[in-house]
Amino acid sequence: MFIFDFFKNFIQRLGLFQKSGRILFLGLANAGKTTLLGRMKDGRFKQYDPTLGSNVEEIQIQNMKLKAFDLGGHEAVIKAWKSYYHNINGIFFLVDSTNKEKFQDSKEELQKILTCEQLKNVPIVFLGNKIDLKDAVSEEELRKSHDLPDKQRLEKIDYEIVNNHPIKIIMCSLSRNVGYIEGFTWISQFVK
């Protein structure tokens, strides 16, 4: 196994081997989904108007070529999320950590994803965004509000399993360029 991993890593460094996959950016309106897509595409921070439908971009991250689907987070578009679930390799679920009034709605949408049979075993990066703002809640409060395991339950791995989903919880700030890259690094282990 060591020899195989060595050669695989060597080939990846030469750029001869590339993973490819399909990921979804989900969450309520104004959570930062389109901003995340923009950050990953060209590295710049920009605020966008709310997405009315979907945005699709090819993004390159290290040895991964990802087709990223940024889906709007208002009620009419949320109902159409299911039509994008086929052949998905990962989900980034974003939450505005300053908007406590929307936590219940966000929790309900997350629970629908976690219990969807079509998405069974799909890894999820849960991003608590906007931690740079003064009204941002702590990671612990965000975990509690979304019924996610507390940090004390973590064992030797750096993520949890919730309803058959590997899930990584990361607090981030897209405006300060903090935290979200860890999510792409983590999810890359699940993309073949």
TrEMBL record:
UniProt keyword Protein transport present: yes
Origin: domain of life: Eukaryota
Pfam families, per the entry: Arf
Residues given in the record as GTP binding sites: G27, L28, A29, N30, A31, G32, K33, T34, T35, G73, N129, K130, I131, D132
Keywords of this entry: Endoplasmic reticulum, ER-Golgi transport, Golgi apparatus, GTP-binding, Hydrolase, Magnesium, Membrane, Metal-binding, Nucleotide-binding, Protein transport, Transport
Family annotation (InterPro entries): P-loop_NTPase, Small_GTP-bd, Small_GTPase_ARF/SAR, Small_GTPase_SAR1
SUPFAM superfamilies: P-loop containing nucleoside triphosphate hydrolases
Subcellular location: Endoplasmic reticulum membrane; Golgi apparatus membrane
A Gene Ontology BP annotation from the UniProt entry: intracellular protein transport
Gene Ontology MF terms in the entry: GTP binding; GTPase activity; metal ion binding
Binding, Mg(2+): T34, T51
UniProt topology in membrane: Peripheral membrane protein
Entry keyword Metal-binding: yes
A cellular component annotation (GO) from this entry: endoplasmic reticulum membrane
Homology family: Belongs to the small GTPase superfamily. SAR1 family.
NCBIfam families: small_GTP
Stated name of the protein: ADP-ribosylation factor(Arf)/Arf-like (Arl) small GTPase family protein
Organism field: Tetrahymena thermophila (strain SB210)
Taxonomic path: Eukaryota, Sar, Alveolata, Ciliophora, Intramacronucleata
